[in-house]
Specification:
By secondary structure, the protein is mainly beta. The chain has strands at 2-5, 12-17, 23-25, 28-31, 36-41, 45-51, 54-56, 61-62, 65-66, 69-74, 80-87, 90-92, 98-99, 107-114, 117-119, 126-129, 134-141, 144-146, 159-164, 167-172, 175-186, 191-196, 199-205.
């Protein structure tokens, strides 16, 4: 399936409204450079699968001005995301892999990125910050990160992986290249985590 999403608003909108048991396979999605785009968004969702997809947010920058926002997964203010997997997928020219507002009280449990290729990202390629909600069982395995654009666009904090207030997480067997504030950024209130067998060759901090 090939989809080119043409934005007609500069406000927030989403390409797909998620529901339980939904599978996206072999989807090629590009976003017209306008607006604030969530690719996948929903409140109470379980067993979402994203496999063998290409998502191109078409985000660019001129100096320190970023053209628009493209978020891959949007976490709601309330509700529960359970068992969401992103496998064998290419993500490019986007801002956040997961956007969760700091005030959100929602729950994310069982999130896995496996063999995902992340390039030309402007904020945090993959990660979650959940100071007022729950984020548990967060796995990033066999993923590759390269050519981050945030530093060149003047972003202060642009990480390949960023975790805060996350429990039971693993970052394993991943490869990190290019520019990033940090390859793996772990903040306060993270607990029971494993970071092992990763290759870090970046212009920036390691862990």
């Amino acid at each position: 399936t090939v989809m080119n999403r043409v934005m007609t608003t500069t406000g927030f909108s989403f390409a797909f409204s998620m529901f339980d048991g939904l599978t996206f396979e072999s989807l090629s999605l590009t976003v017209d450079p306008n607006g604030q785009n969530f690719t996948f968004f929903g409140n109470d969702i379980s067993n979402l699968k994203i496999d063998k997809c290409l998502i191109d947010g078409k985000v660019t920058h001129t100096g320190s001005v970023i053209s628009h926002n493209c978020f891959i997964i949007g976490a709601p203010a309330t509700g529960t995301h359970k068992n969401i997997t992103v496998h064998n997928t290419d993500l490019t020219k986007y801002t956040f892999g997961i956007l969760k507002d700091n005030t959100s009280t929602s729950t994310q449990v069982g999130i896995e990125f496996y063999n995902v290729n992340c390039t030309k990202y402007y904020k945090n390629a993959i990660g979650i910050n959940s100071p007022n909600g729950i984020a548990d069982d967060f796995q990033v395995l066999f993923c590759r990160f390269d050519d981050g654009q945030g530093i060149d666009a003047g972003e202060i904090n642009t990480h390949s992986i960023a975790l805060a207030s996350v429990s039971n997480f693993s970052v394993s067997l991943c490869k990190f290249y290019g520019k990033a504030s940090a390859a793996i950024h772990i903040e306060e209130k993270c607990s029971v985590g494993t970071v092992t067998n990763n290759l870090i060759n970046t212009d920036g901090s390691g862990i």
